């Protein structure tokens, strides 16, 4: 057909420009590979100002950073919608609704589901709706969608990484590992498959194996976005920390890979701060802050800048305790009040969903300023961080808030409750020495003789992963 070209998926796009379709296909690759050059989609409307697909994808890319230009691109796409292909119309409908104000997330998912039923090879639309499901805290929906298109993409790059992630979020670790390995076999540079496999190994406390695998893969990460580059290194650092390697290994990863990302001219600072803060809060909980104290103060000075606020709920909830711990109480309070204000402007449906997030924010503020009793009252006796998925964090990222809760229990003398929850925790992840250390502390507080054997177990695990001598 004259004036129509096929994109990477083989779907028809109304354009006569080879450069326009090349920019669209390059954008597909950047999205699926978590690349640093997703801005390539802005070239598509330059090469063909009338291409509906190029305009709407560019609008989606700019929607969170340049609303006025995004609105112009949406209007440009809409003005040529009648002349576009059925594929472009379906993408326009799903994307324009996704970036509309006061959208209903369930409707946005349904629009993408309909799109994928007609055009199941469009893995970028699958990735887009999986990101939405992630922020909804709905890995079940995410899994349904990838399973819907899987029969049409059996040997396609990237689809198995997208399958693995919701599986591991649903606790199906064996299936997640199988999917991640298959994705890695198809494409050794599928960073999402690498990431999913590390998740599985880390959850199963195979820390040394996880570190070895990820460090072997790390030479391929140069093209990654600031987020996935520092996030993959965050996993490495966390495996060193959880496996009780010498703290200098954690420092090396933080300094040479996470913080150093900020030196790149195209670094996205908030993406780096998210992973840096997620690591430093774990360090703080393990009472290793003395060797990280300067770094903690440096990042606190960076994130008190309001330019880093209200971008991601997860980031805000890491900034809050950091500011409070480092004495920036007025800034922490200002951030917390801003979050409450944002909540009040949401739809009633969204407010109900985000209630757990705001309660966690209030608790983290109190915790950071040393008010453990108030912080614990806000979270309650049956807190589970997995109930806070709507802040936009994986199980592994959320787990630090469980650790904060355990700390609150111990700091307020709730030894019996701490023993109860830590014993349950150990049944799920028996190989994590930090949990055994917390249980040892709880038993000691309760003056139980089990503290001795639990302490021995902790020391044995600490020595096992990275071949350290057992402490006596």
Automatic annotation (TrEMBL):
Q: Which Gene3D superfamilies match?
A: Tetratricopeptide repeat domain (1.25.40.10)
Please name the InterPro entries in this protein's record. Answer: TPR-like_helical_dom_sf, TTC38
Look up keyword Transcription and say if it applies: no
Q: Which UniProt keywords apply?
A: Coiled coil, Repeat, TPR repeat
Q: Could you list the residue ranges forming a coiled coil in this record?
A: 329-356
Which family does the similarity line name?
A: Belongs to the TTC38 family.
Name assigned to this protein: Tetratricopeptide repeat protein 38
Q: Which organism is it from?
A: Acer negundo
Could you read off the lineage of the organism from its UniProt record? Eukaryota, Viridiplantae, Streptophyta, Embryophyta, Tracheophyta
